[in-house]
Design a protein that fits this description.
It is a single chain. This protein is mainly α. The protein contains 9 helices and no strands. α1 packs across α2 and α5 packs antiparallel against α9. The model has no long low-confidence stretch (mean pLDDT 86).
């Protein structure tokens, strides 16, 4: 029984290594050559894996791209507990996105410039069945806070998450447009605070 567990662990480890290899290959292509050169064939050649191996881990190229966002450092679950008041709820939402800002900075301007393109359908919430992190985190959190009657927003949750997503994309775009020479964190915080203060 213990040997079976160890075998499974080895298999899981190998699977993670392959996934990471694919991830690194796609990141390298995206950074150096741009989205247009990011094909499954090119990714597999760069990673030294078969097409079958790619499809074992990812459904599509856009599914792979969403992995970048979903794999960012996780948020401490304690910070997502029910807030005492609306102000605390706002600060939690801002914290989630400041965490995202730091992750974008780790990936770098070059990568994010190529990631945020209309061709990248992993960014489209109408096409993806599960939205990329962190918007799903914020959506679930807001629903919990609304259900507890802590906030009473004037808009529907779907509209709120759409607005937040557009604010975030705008801030990332501005940061990329200026080649990182902007107060990314400060701008994100200010624009989200302004929006959320008007909302609840």
């Amino acid at each position: 029984m213990q040997q079976a567990t160890q075998e499974l662990s080895k298999q899981q480890l190998k699977s993670k290594e392959t996934k990471d290899k694919i991830f690194r290959a796609a990141k390298h292509i995206l950074q150096k050559k741009g989205y247009d050169q990011l094909s499954i064939k090119n990714i597999c050649e760069e990673a030294g894996v078969s097409n079958g191996s790619f499809y074992h881990h990812f459904k599509t190229k856009d599914d792979l791209l969403s992995y970048y966002i979903e794999e960012q450092p996780s948020i401490n679950p304690d910070l997502l507990d029910l807030p005492e008041n609306a102000e605390e709820a706002k600060q939690t939402i801002i914290y989630v996105y400041l965490n995202y800002v730091h992750y974008c900075q780790e990936l770098g301007v070059e990568f994010m410039s190529n990631y945020y393109t209309p061709k990248n359908q992993s960014l489209n919430p109408l096409i993806r069945t599960e939205r990329p992190y962190p918007i799903i985190t914020v959506s679930n959190y807001l629903q919990k806070v609304i259900d507890a009657h802590i906030i009473h927003p004037s808009l529907a949750l779907e509209d709120i998450t759409t607005d937040i997503r557009m604010i975030v994309i705008g801030n990332v775009f501005e940061w990329c447009l200026k080649s990182g020479d902007t107060d990314f964190e400060g701008n994100m915080k200010r624009s989200l605070e302004t929006y959320l203060n008007g909302l609840f």
